Amino acid sequence: AEAKEREREWLRNQLSGDLDDNKIVDGASGERRIYRKRGEPEKKLGMQQRLPKRIVFAVDLSASMARMNGWDGRLDRMASGVIMLMEALSDPQFAHKFDYSIVGHSGARYDVPLVAFGEPPKSEDERALVVENMYRHAKSATTGDNSLQAAICATAMVAEEQADDHLVFLLSDANLGRYNIAPSQISAALTSDPSVTGHAIFVAEPSAADWLAAEMPAGRGFAAMEASSLVSTLKQAFEAAVVE
Predict the structure, then answer these.
(1) What is the total count of domains within the chain?
(2) Do 137 and 235 lie in a common domain?
(3) Which residue spans adopt a coiled-coil conformation according to this UniProt entry (predicted)?
């Protein structure tokens, strides 16, 4: 994950001096480039991430996720994706670069707490408990959809603290039309804060998912109908977000 902090400055080959615009361009001159904040000692070459990337994953735990799971495995697929996310983000070489939260949304709530910022599950047992809570809530959830409110809440929550990046990933079963939620509303919620990069990933109802993804701004909507494609889609969306 390459840092893209707004305060980064590229300076001349010296410990003091003004910003050198000529060195901003990634040319082929082979000259040595050093970066630092003004007044700070020289840092190592390359890009350095001073703050973690702050991420909210808002996952669908609606009643339809549990009810239709036996038909198309949508809740199992969601759980598999969440497990892989938690395992990947627990890697020691990356853990300090990310601060993430996982919340659920359903007809009952838009902010079901699963993983809090600064408290990532560190063991298999802790990750298993997160998944257990996902299934428990989905199986007891009342009919309804809070995807829109979840997008609004996640966008506001992720921006509460400074970070190298602010990212939101909304996962939904694409059952929005039943509750008169338009893709334009989801798009507006996920793009309401210019400091936040929001994506929507639709994991069920193939026709609706493809249509909803196409209606989202370019590169912000995805459809994933298989566990393997959900993982690759999350990777694609994450890579798009961190290089924007």
Answers:
(1) 2
(2) yes
(3) none
Other C-beta atoms within 10 Å of 1: how many?
A: 16
Residues 16-47 pLDDT 10s = 444 444 443 333 333 444 444 455 544 444 55
Same domain, 99 and 30: no
Q: From CA 102, how far away is CA 61, in angstroms rounded?
A: 12
Instruction: Note whether residue 44 is domain-resident.
Output: no
Query: Cβ of 42: how many Cβ atoms within 10 Å?
Result: 12
pTM as predicted: 0.80
Q: Which of 165, 145, 86, 80 is nearest to 119 (CA)?
A: 86
Whether 115 maps to a domain, the answer reads yes
Residue 115: domain span: 53-242
Neighbours of 49 (CB within 10 A): 18
Question: Which residue, chain included where needed, has tokens 């609004």?
Answer: 152
- 3-state SS assignment for residue 119: coil
Tell me, yes or no, whether 28 and 143 share the same domain: no
Residue predicted with more confidence, 240 or 86:
86
CB atoms within 10 A of CB 14: 9
Whole-angstrom Cα distance, residue 52 to residue 162? 9
Q: What is the pLDDT of residues 176-208, one digit of tens each?
A: 988 999 999 999 999 999 999 999 999 988 899
Distance, in Å, from the CA atom of 159 to the CA atom of 189, rounded to the nearest integer, reads 13
Provide the phi-psi class of 147: left if phi over 0, else alpha when psi is between -120 and 50, else beta.
alpha
Name the one residue in this structure whose structure tokens are 């079963």.
173
Strand 166-172 vs strand 196-202: parallel, antiparallel, or unpaired?
parallel
The residues that bridge with 55 in the sheet, in sequence order, are: 100, 167
Q: Are residues 32 and 119 in the same domain?
A: no
Residue 195 DSSP symbol: T
